[in-house]
Amino acid sequence: MRQSSLFGRTLREAPADAQTPGHRLMLRAAIARPLASGFYTWLPLGFRVAQKVEQIIREEMDRIGCQEMEMPVLTPAELWKTTGRWDALEPITFRTKDHNGREFMVSYTHEEAIHSHAMSELQSYKQMPAMVYHFQSKGRDEARPRAGLLRVREFVMKDAYSFDIDQAGLEKSYKAQHGAYERIFKRMGLNAVSVESDTGAMGGDIAHEFQVLTEVGEDRIVVCPNCDYRANMERATRTPDVPLREDGIAPRSEIATPGTTSIEALQASLKVDADRLLKTLLLRDASGNVVAVVLPGDRDVNEAKLRKILGTSEVKFANDADFAAAGAVAGYIGPVGLRVRTLVDTSVDQRAYVAGANKKDAHLRSVVSGRDFTGETVDVHDIREGDVCPRCKTGGLRLERGVEVGNIFAYGTYYSDKMNATFLAEDGTRKPFVGGSYGIGVGRAVQTIIETSHDDKGIIWPISVAPYHVHVIALPSNDATVRTAADALVADLEHAGLEVLYDDRDETAGVKFADADLIGIPFRATVSKRTLKEDQVELKPRSASEAEFIPRATATERIAGAVRRALA
RNA sequence: CGGGGUGUGGCGCAGUUGGUAGCGCGCCGCUUUUGGGAAGCGGAGGUUCGCCGGUUCGAGUCCGGCCACCCCGACCA
Fold first, then answer.
1. pTM above 0.90, yes or no
2. For A465, which of A52, A331, A400, A514 could close a Cys bridge (C-beta 3.0–4.6 Å)?
3. Buried b (16+ CB within 10 A) or exposed e, A385-411
């Protein structure tokens, strides 16, 4: 490919609103361009990368017997109504109608579609296990797209689906996908770790996310430095500290705390640590049910855990009427005497706390859980740095940020039950498919590679996904001798099966080298007046600081060898 | 959806108490250059400053409304 005719130009400066390093480099190196918020066009360089990422995924899916197919982007409303997702997904999906007024959704995902196919294609237990996948655009009307390709509103996902006759079969398929994912991310140069993830409102099943730990990530990941425990914050637990017990606690007593309506203010005025205070939150779920959550003043409530406990899609702060009905006073709420369902977090110990008195300008001292108030014991708190690992029981859990580049989810019969998708089992009865789904976002993976593989000059592509293997630079390209030699080298390299980007532009050395560093092709081969004087070619790996000079006669052979070794 | 910010040539930005729009990069032409984002000369490019309305003799600038984009949070089956 001659760079003089490449569609897509590099930018000396990134647009001001690009924030993360990967976002800036993605734009500067002409990988992709925005068309609207959350909608991106792949430019030719980026498209080549995306295709290589797809090819790696394709090979690893094929390797575990997963078959490629393709389902449409637009899917009929009736299909989504069978699982209730037509309504549930309304706020975050794109919809349209055909000329007869029939409604369609730009697919958010394809579980409904694949189950509908499975029930007609897979009629007998003999046809399972079965696994299929496709690369297809997904539409998600995200409230907040961010950081270039990391979170967009339309993107190509590889989504795979497994169908098994029972839970044991599903676990086998799940394991095969897990293994494939490990190979996929490794091959594309991503250090992705598998972490336990929340299964959302479906509950109870197994799910893992593949997270690349980087500060630009938006997910919070709990990581144990002493063992392999890794979990999404939405699901992470801890081994509780040794419960603190206090005996002979005096009866509770009221204290005057005028104007002291926050944990911080109480800490300051009473001169006590936050963990001696009780934080009581009055919340309401999607159906308007009100619940009080009690936890130590130094702990935060984890909304994902709470939603799951309540079986609701939404948790909001209670309104004034809720406070009145519960007998609570905003700013002075406490669990004692509260007239509402109460959840007590596992972090609350058997010791004396200061809590709100449910009375303006007053708190209670020596409040003891179980003695002064009761409630259901639940784990609804956020893990924080230093907590004790639930697996290896040692301290020092860390919080990191991650980009979720893939997820795998064994949902079992969730969809087949709703859709009545069954097969004929060996015993002659009809049984629901036991399924799983497995997704990878292609564009997000591409930008995550950039986020984690670059220096201050530009991208450093792993050769497995690089847009080209070799960047040939002619210097200057308007010198006939140089031009002839460079043309010949490019022809030889291409003949040897290498992918070559050829900088034949009439630009200065500085411009060409800076662009080569920015675009980040793994090998740079320079042909110049200077190298030709010695009948040489300069070869420099993008990741190396030093170049080497190789004889022109063996240059193709040497470069091809280096590329093949790197690809191996 | 809540909070914050920004909209002026392709990109980065300036534009004073309101007076009729500039700079750098990039782009085009010619010349000289060619190993780390060259130099000189000459040009083009803004439907007049996101859109609509208002105030004013006069609005990029003041006022109101709207839109788009970015950041933080919420949400994310």
1. no
2. A52
3. eebbbbeeeeeebebbebbbbbbbbbb
